[in-house]
Design goal:
Helices cover 0% and strands 54% of the residues. The chain is mainly beta and 243 residues long. The strands form three sheets. Strands 1, 13, 14, 15, 16, 17, 18, 19 and 20 form a nine-stranded mixed sheet that branches. Strands 2-3-4-11-6-9-12 form a seven-stranded antiparallel sheet, with no helix packed on it. A hairpin with a 4-residue loop joins strand 7 and strand 8. The model has no long low-confidence stretch (mean pLDDT 97). Belongs to the pirin family. Keywords: Iron, Metal-binding.
Length: 243
């Protein structure tokens, strides 16, 4: 496998702010690692735990595609576009920050922590009109198969972003194998194991481990125990405005 990078769960950056506990796969805030700035256009992969009733106050973003995937609990979202909603486990949220947005998010549950993935991708164009979307996912659609949850095309399954990227989820039973064919052969793959244990060729990945690679048009994963996997197919070349 060419240009392979393994990201073990215990090698991630970690920040404990009391109300927020966050694991950073890539450099973020006070965690700076010059060898982990981004993977292609994938810039941020944060694994966040938010205490009951706590959250992020209003803050700005611009020129970034921001995806949130709740894993446990829910998040209350408000933004400068007039959206006010709650994102629950089993849903996906996307914001194209574009020319600029302000938003806040907090855990509306006063008893239980919420947990979510926060993912940022560099967009393929600057200063788009900000937009917001969220979508309820069907758990049955990912049983031992890839369920597309994000793409570049508004007419495809899942949410869409301003980037030539595809995200898929699978819940893979023990001993089941699953093959993936890249949508764009020039893209790279970043696999993040949410739960369980999988093997990909000679590499074994455990809970919250990740692997990134490119120059491969297809590959297979096999679950050695019941597993949940997030697959992110992303362009490896940065947009011209970053070069």
């Amino acid at each position: 496998m060419n240009n392979k990078l393994i990201f073990r769960a215990d090698s991630r950056g970690y920040a404990n702010h009391g109300w927020l506990k966050s694991y950073h796969t890539f450099s973020f805030a006070n965690y700076q690692n010059n060898e982990r700035i981004h993977f292609g256009v994938l810039r941020v992969l944060n694994d966040d735990y938010v205490a009951p009733g706590m959250g992020f106050g209003t803050h700005p973003h611009e020129n970034m595609e921001i995806i949130s995937i709740p894993l446990n609990g829910s998040l209350s979202h408000k933004d400068s576009m007039g959206n006010g909603t709650i994102i629950n486990t089993g849903e996906i949220q996307v914001m194209s920050a574009g020319t600029g947005i302000n938003h806040s998010e907090f855990n509306p549950d006063e008893t239980n922590a919420s947990q979510f993935l926060q993912i940022w991708l560099f967009p393929n164009k600057l200063n788009v009109k900000p937009r917001y979307d969220q979508l309820k996912l069907n758990k049955e659609d990912r049983a031992n198969q890839w369920d597309q949850i994000l793409s570049p095309n508004p007419d495809d399954k899942g949410v869409w972003i301003h980037q030539n990227a595809w995200f898929h989820l699978t819940d893979l039973d023990q001993d089941r194998e699953l093959r993936y064919e890249l949508k764009d052969k020039s893209n790279g793959i970043f696999l993040f194991v949410l739960e369980g244990e999988i093997s990909i060729e000679e590499d074994v990945l455990h809970r919250r481990d990740a692997i990134g690679f490119d120059e491969k048009e297809s590959f297979s994963i096999k679950a050695s125990k019941n597993s949940q996997v997030l697959l992110m197919e992303v362009p490896m070349e940065l947009p011209a405005y970053l070069q």
